[in-house]
């Protein structure tokens, strides 16, 4: 069976989650989230996130991000986000298509933007008053598209800017667990300043399913209707909620994410010692970005698949998962050493 470093989406389902799916596949129960398991799972997530919030399960991350924007925005309002944000680069314009809202992209440094950049983007856009859009939402990713982290202090600074400007803070948390594991903090600490959260699942061992979490519950007004209209209301909801229950039991989310992070560190250390390969960004979570000659990359991809990171042919991405093994890393490193020799 092929194993590779293309994406944590390529991994299978972790055993605890698969077992939960088998166990819940018994008998009949209420549909559309009205079953007891879905309701107790929502409470379990609220407890882990540390404060009252509304939790809604959806199928995938693009839907979570898009519906977060749709719930928060009027068509004349806009989104401030990094120019590397997934909602800009890899979601086919879905948030803009759904909302009619403009995206105000800010140049990111290693995937991150600052509170001061948010203030400047807001000032530049609102200068023209009713002739321009009204910024309403800031969207950032934790961990970022480059695998880097916003510290708790940076998040607090960003939230302070949002409060000053009457902006909501949305976090794309498809790899939120990796960030918490790397920072050594709880999910509650990591979400302290967040208004709307796209809470990941599939990148951390689920078969399918994400969650959209509204800490600012005023933004969730009408969301039961919006989720249905957005084609994201799963009739057999227990099959999503059972997976999240497994993920949030005995800190399975931490176990999976911590292992993926540790495997990425191991991979990065090995790659950095090979001539011709250089790390592009600090390796803080489960993504490793490097530069290497194209010929070397093509040879390595034949041995253990991974992806180029866009059109720049000398930049490549490796992603580790909950089930990445040291032996797989050594296979890749040995292939790289042979290529150099």
Automatic annotation (TrEMBL):
It holds the Pfam family Beta_elim_lyase. Its EC number is 4.1.2.48. InterPro entries: ArAA_b-elim_lyase/Thr_aldolase, PyrdxlP-dep_Trfase, PyrdxlP-dep_Trfase_major, PyrdxlP-dep_Trfase_small. Residues 5-293 form the Aromatic amino acid beta-eliminating lyase/threonine aldolase domain. Keywords: Lyase, Pyridoxal phosphate. The keyword Lyase applies. Its cofactor is pyridoxal 5'-phosphate. The keyword Nucleotidyltransferase does not apply. One of its GO terms (molecular function) is lyase activity. Homotetramer. Belongs to the threonine aldolase family. This is Threonine aldolase.
């Amino acid at each position: 069976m092929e194993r590779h470093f293309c994406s944590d989406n390529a991994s299978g389902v972790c055993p605890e989650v698969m077992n939960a799916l088998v166990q819940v596949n018994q008998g009949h129960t209420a549909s559309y989230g009205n079953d007891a398991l879905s309701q107790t799972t929502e409470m379990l997530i609220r407890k882990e996130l540390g404060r009252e919030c509304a939790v809604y399960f959806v199928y995938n991350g693009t839907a979570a991000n898009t519906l977060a924007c749709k719930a928060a925005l009027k068509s004349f309002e806009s989104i401030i986000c990094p120019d590397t944000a997934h909602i800009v680069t890899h979601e086919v314009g879905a948030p803009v298509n759904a909302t009619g809202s403009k995206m105000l992209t800010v140049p990111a440094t290693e995937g991150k933007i600052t509170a001061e950049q948010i203030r400047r983007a807001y000032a530049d856009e609102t200068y023209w008053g009713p002739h321009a859009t009204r910024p309403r939402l800031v969207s950032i990713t934790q961990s970022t598209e480059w695998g880097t982290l916003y510290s708790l202090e940076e998040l607090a600074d960003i939230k302070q800017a949002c409060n000053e400007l009457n902006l909501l803070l949305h976090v794309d948390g498809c790899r939120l667990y990796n960030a918490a594991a790397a920072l050594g903090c709880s999910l509650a600490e990591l979400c302290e300043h967040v208004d709307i959260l796209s809470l990941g699942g599939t990148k951390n061992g689920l078969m399918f399913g994400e969650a959209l979490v509204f800490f600012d519950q005023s933004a969730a007004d009408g969301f039961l209707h919006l989720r249905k209209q957005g084609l994201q209301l799963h009739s057999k909801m227990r099959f999503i909620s059972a997976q999240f229950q497994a993920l949030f039991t005995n800190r399975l989310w931490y176990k999976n994410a911590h292992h993926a992070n540790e495997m990425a560190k191991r991979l990065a250390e090995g790659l950095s010692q090979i001539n011709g390969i250089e790390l592009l960004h600090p390796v803080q979570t489960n993504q490793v970005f490097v530069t290497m000659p194209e010929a070397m990359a093509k040879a390595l991809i034949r041995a253990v698949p991974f992806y180029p990171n866009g059109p720049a042919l000398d930049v490549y991405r490796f992603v580790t998962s909950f089930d990445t093994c040291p032996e797989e890393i050594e296979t890749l490193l040995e292939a790289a050493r042979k290529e150099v020799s």
